[in-house]
Amino acid sequence: MPAPGGPAKRAPNPFLANDPNQKAKRLARALVSDMVAYLPQKREEGIKNNTLKQLFREEIKKSYEEYVDQIGKEFADGTTHFQDALNDVLAGGKKIF
Question: What is the tally of structural domains in the chain?
Answer without folding.
Answer: 1
